[in-house]
Amino acid sequence: MQQINRRSQVVIVEPVGRNTAPALALAAMYVVNGSEAGRAGNEADEILLVLPADHHIGETATFHAVLKQAEESARAGRLVLFGIRPTHPETGYGYVRSGARVDGAEAAIYSVAQFVEKPDRAKAENYLAAGDYLWNSGIFMLHARVYLAELKRLRPDIYAACKNAFDNIRYESGFAHVPESFAHCPSDSIDYAVMEHTDRAVVVALDAGWNDVGTWSALWDIQEKNEEQNVFKGDVVAHASRGCLVAADGRLVSLLGVSDLVVVDTRDAVLIAHRDRVQDVKELVGRLDGLGRAETSLHREVSRPWGSYDSVDRGERFQVKRIRVKPGGRLSLQKHHHRAEHWIVVQGTALVTCGERQFLLSENESTYIPIGEIHRLENPGKIPLEIIEVQSGCYLGEDDIVRLEDNYGRAPVPAAVEEPADDADSIITVLPVTAVGAPLSSPAGR
Predict the structure, then answer these.
(1) What is the distance of C-alpha 109 from the center of its chain?
(2) Does 442 score more than 50 pLDDT?
(3) Helix 20-29 crosses helix 144-154 at what angle (to 10 degrees)?
(4) Largest CA distance in the chain
(5) 326, 306 contact by CB (below 8 A)
(6) Cβ within 8 Å of residue 207, ≥6 positions away
């Protein structure tokens, strides 16, 4: 939130992804029990707007107007889903079929007759012709207590696991760190766990320039294009090329005589695809999984509660990382059985614990951490700390970390066990309805 210059009441940090139903349960529990409004018993502030992180809304005023229409139903105890009027027979989205209009609702809000999985082309064309099918946007408005009651009734196992995790949350500097026990929570989506089984589900149509930006071609659709209909991000040079999207992360990417391509150059891999085939990227991921490639679950740059690290280079008995520690960030007090480390400060000031000693390092200064020595790295300053870490030893895996003390509630278990691949679907934003804007009527691893 600091990096995008936004303030929030709290950011709930999951140790692992368990999909959207548990993520929303934690947010709802915080609103009911952990927030200032919840502790004061102010149910007026318990209407939540649930927004996937990767959606684009082009018409903000229209969006706010539809939210205001849906608010009445949410306050009446209904679980409101926002459906998008389909503009073409899309096979990449799930659908929802609207039923009868809800009696007494001022807005055009309908019961949910059916949830439908991503269809094939023929079915998608039939849905478009029928007129009562909407794309499932994954955007919801609901009352926190109602959602928790329905989750407890329909999936008591998820509710119990979330309640146990919430009761042991640790709060620090605007973050709520969920304990490692959350890893035992069953993984399920809001749709499967609650919406497809509850009798409280309703749907309202949203026509506000929505795009889920779920594919690179969708990103090309919404971006401003040059005269050749190209979208370039990063260091890109092109000649006689048209209709392409290029996202370059650090290196020069050159195009010559090509059309309608998507080129994504990251630190982990390079993707080159035709714009019409980017929906099939899951087939490539499946092949990589079958080949046992680590790129599907491990990334060069890894985020941590204290900052991030980037694995710059690696050999048989060495590894080089660039470690970035945010102001006030503090790695766990730890030791390694199989590797030693050299630290070189390239920006900021480091507070180093090494055995019984504690000392400061400034830019261009370095230190050595022997194998088996207890150590810790901290940033006591007001600017980000960056160091280059050179590891050497017979084993360099992330599970060679023995945590002795940790500020972020992480258990002293091997990192390889506690950090499975991220679940992108669980990245959601949950806002009190009052935070969206004036149109709403309520008061405000290491």
Answers:
(1) 29
(2) no
(3) 130
(4) 73
(5) yes
(6) 62, 84, 85
Strands 95-101 and 385-393: unpaired
Cα 219 from chain centroid (whole Å) = 17
| Token code pair at residue 340 | 């030693």
- The DSSP call for residue 259 is B
The sheet that has 350-354: what strands, in order across it? 357-361, 350-354, 375-378, 333-335, 402-405
- pLDDT digit string, tens, across residues 93-133: 899 999 988 866 555 889 999 999 999 999 999 999 998 99
Report the predicted TM-score, pTM, of the whole model to 2 decimal places: 0.67
**How far is CA 302 from each of CA 203, 290, 308, 390, 410, rounded to the nearest angstrom?**
38, 23, 5, 17, 16
Q: Determine which helix (DSSP H) or strand (DSSP E) holds 123, and give its type and residue range.
A: helix 121-130
Tokens 């929030």, located at residue: 8
CA of residue 260 relative to chain centroid, distance: 29
Neighbour count for residue 417 (Cβ, 10 Å): 11
Burial per residue of 379-412, b for 16 or more beta-carbon CB atoms within 10 angstroms, e otherwise:
bebeeebbbebbbebeebebebbbbeebbbbbee
**Helical ranges in 181-305 per DSSP H:** 190, 216-222, 281-290
Read off the pLDDT of each residue in 187-202 and give the average, rounded to a whole number.
95
